[in-house]
Amino acid sequence: DVKDFGADVSFTVDGGPLGDMNSSPFNAADAKVSIKGTDVHPAEAKGVMVNAIQVGMDFHGALPDFDRPEKTEDREGFFHIYDFKGSVDHTEMAYIIRDHDRDRFEARKRLFQGIADQMNTDFGEDRIKVTIKDQYYNMGEIIEKDPTPVKIAEQAMKNVDVKPHIFPVRGGTDGSKISYMGLPTPNIFAGGENMHGRFEYVSEQTMVKAVDVILEIAKLYAEK
């Protein structure tokens, strides 16, 4: 409960390498695709079988080929399939949809739904069901109205001999939701590297520097 925080500003310590600071994450949605097939013996399949696995492959193939995490960078958005399971009779697919720009984010969701609508029209019945749920939004829209927290954190880093690196992060933090609850919450580094991979690690020295920055932020706000 943000009101219980009793604060005018907050920070998350959930970033990566030394000096990283983020106040512009993705707009994010989770999307599920459910496909109903028709399973018959392959010998009698012509004109009858609807292979839900193949339909899923066709759906995925209809998305822009270059709008994937492995082919995008910086402020470029994407569609990312992270689960695909099923059979001829029924298939389920799971995606995340990401974009820093709100208009492009909304356009991506419309495109995603539009592919399903067109395929259902081609089938002559509703075989593909899409469910899209927004997860969080780019808190940059909130923080740009008053960038004071970012400026304070930037100065705090400089004061403890850390070079600030401010950039639009290709991810999100709890601060995204908290910012939209009325409490601006930029994200600063915590020392994590190679995140979400087999070789993820955290630097002890960077963690110590993160503590130094937090203490300096508190000091600068106290002096305001």
TrEMBL record:
Instruction: Please give the Gene3D superfamilies that the UniProt record associates with this protein.
Output: 3.30.70.360
EC number of the protein: 3.4.11.4
Give this protein's Gene Ontology molecular function annotations: tripeptide aminopeptidase activity; zinc ion binding
- Which domain of life does the UniProt lineage start with? Bacteria
Peptidase M20 dimerisation domain residues: 26-123
Report the cofactors: Zn(2+)
Record GO cellular component, one term: cytosol
One Pfam family, short name: M20_dimer
A biological process (GO) of this protein is:
peptide metabolic process
- UniProt-listed InterPro entries: Bact_exopeptidase_dim_dom, Peptidase_M20_dimer, Peptidase_M20B
What keywords is this UniProt entry annotated with? Aminopeptidase, Hydrolase, Protease, Zinc
- NCBIfam families membership: peptidase-T, PRK05469.1
For this entry, the protein name equals: Peptidase T
User: Which organism does this record belong to?
Assistant: Lentilactobacillus parabuchneri
